[in-house]
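Appendix B. Extra example for self-study. Work through it before the problem class; the solution is given directly after the inputs so you can check yourself.
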Amino acid sequence: MDLETLARSVSEWLKGTGPEADIIVSSRIRLARNLAKFPFLSRADEGIRAEIENQVKDRLLGIKKFGPITYFPIDGMAQLDRQMFVERQLISRELSEAKGARGVAISEEQNLSIMVNEEDHLRIQVLRSGYELDACWKQISQLDDELESQVTYAFHEHLGYLTACPTNVGTGIRASVMLHLPALVLTKEIQKFFQAMHKMNLTVRGMYGEGSQAMGDFYQVSNQTTLGRSEEDIVNTIKTVIPKILDYERNARARLMNDNRRGVHDQVSRAYGILKTAQTISSEETMQLLSNVRMGVNLGLIDDLEIPQINELFIFTQPAHLQKIRKERMESAERNVARAAYLRTKLIQPDEMN
Amino acid sequence: MDLETLARSVSEWLKGTGPEADIIVSSRIRLARNLAKFPFLSRADEGIRAEIENQVKDRLLGIKKFGPITYFPIDGMAQLDRQMFVERQLISRELSEAKGARGVAISEEQNLSIMVNEEDHLRIQVLRSGYELDACWKQISQLDDELESQVTYAFHEHLGYLTACPTNVGTGIRASVMLHLPALVLTKEIQKFFQAMHKMNLTVRGMYGEGSQAMGDFYQVSNQTTLGRSEEDIVNTIKTVIPKILDYERNARARLMNDNRRGVHDQVSRAYGILKTAQTISSEETMQLLSNVRMGVNLGLIDDLEIPQINELFIFTQPAHLQKIRKERMESAERNVARAAYLRTKLIQPDEMN
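Solution. Structure tokens for the complete assembly:
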């Protein structure tokens, strides 16, 4: 798979399939792993980094169980392509902006991505559409076992897996779900949701992880602790809370529809109208309007759009994707015009365009 | 012509024809006249009012030159119908809300309306689409002459026509044009325009005359003085200033298109999108969005709408018209829903509605 194919492809996790896909966009588990024979990256010079990449790369390409794997070196990759990888959630901003030998191994469906030389030597990620934490866990365990049969991980018999940052020591696991919570935002209950998550030792972040702003009413909920509990335990904590979150959001949606169906329909319908007619539009406004439209489809207020189409638009209207599609670098103002044109093309049916 | 036919008909002045119709919606001249043998209305009891109406009514119905005339008594008319007359500019708010015997005579095309027992015994109005002050003046003079051949006006050889309010003494004439000035509003030059009009002793008002707010970027410019100058002089003062106003607005439009074509196109296009998709919308927002769309059509940015359609929407989306069309009384919230539905029906082409 080359970069251009990747930029045009639709990742499996965007397909809008899987359980609870009206609220749970995707499920994700990542493991932080380090190789015993190399120092942590904070103490690794460029030579060591290169050696890590070198040793790991071939083993990653050798994984057979999950279909063909492609390894993309990030060092030397154009900024636009790195940003495209970030927008698709295949790599972190940190990996994109780091220096030196580093890269990412990606499966064809883009469910699997293994970052090399991010904060740890290896960051193994499995990402799936909908509520699929169990499937993620099953797949990532297999992958982890396969890798562990080939390399020796840094492991301490009392502490568990050793990681660059103490917060990851132990299991090195972070399990998360990406939630679409527009009704909790509209009913101003989202703060209550934050507090509830905090009390349960769960972290809430924006779409692009640590430090990223919540955009388009998307929130990532993940575990905080990785030490002293089993991986299954940690995944189960998230699984315990998910039905409650689904209830919160669904109740809020039902209340909105009950108390102010017309107002909700109006907001959703106008959002759709603006997306179809704007001549220039920012990424932030696009996210917000798409969020309204996504809720509208889920509430049965819009019937000529499907969730997968909207999920795709969230990604393909982002700056790097837009530039990849247009095959040119564009400044922010040009992007806003290109984004509006792209949205019109995708949202207006041929027989509306006379 | 009955009330229901009137409510559904399109007045000639809305047709968007006539010179400079991109900016000048309509031209209007009115004359204030009183009958010599009756006291001014401030000193007229109900009996005198009724007698005035009685004497005048038959003479108005007898006018032949301008096609069939219908006389609508306003006393006893339902509030909704009175409001509908105000929205169409056939009567003033004052006549609508006054008490006692009063009415209005209207020609078929609604160019001609003669209010009986408003502030003066007679308020004769001619209203035409586009820049047609000369045609208005010609028609109203004929009408005035015809009436004067049948009744004796209160007239003083030095002062001229005597009127209830001293500001109308002399000619009793008010000549005005209704201007659509969206670009002067957008470029924030509208205050400069107000000042220029003020210096020339011209008055600027909103769409519905004295005390009405400017809505939808519509402004009525009219003369202040009526004494000591001939009618032609007064009409000419307005005619002198019109080319300058047209220049102001057209320059502002050209500058907007030159400096920020994309931004203007975006605003216009979104306004059209919202009007097509809103599920509830206030009268004020409708006026503002229609104003943007009207400018968009005039600038060639929207090509599937015509000015007459938009002019009609300005009137038919107003509260009383909306209720007349739906044949039911509606509260404000219901009207907003009905208005949005009406706009969608009128603006969405059949093949867009799948």
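Self-check: The radius of gyration of chain B is 21 Å. If your reasoning did not lead you there, revisit section 3.
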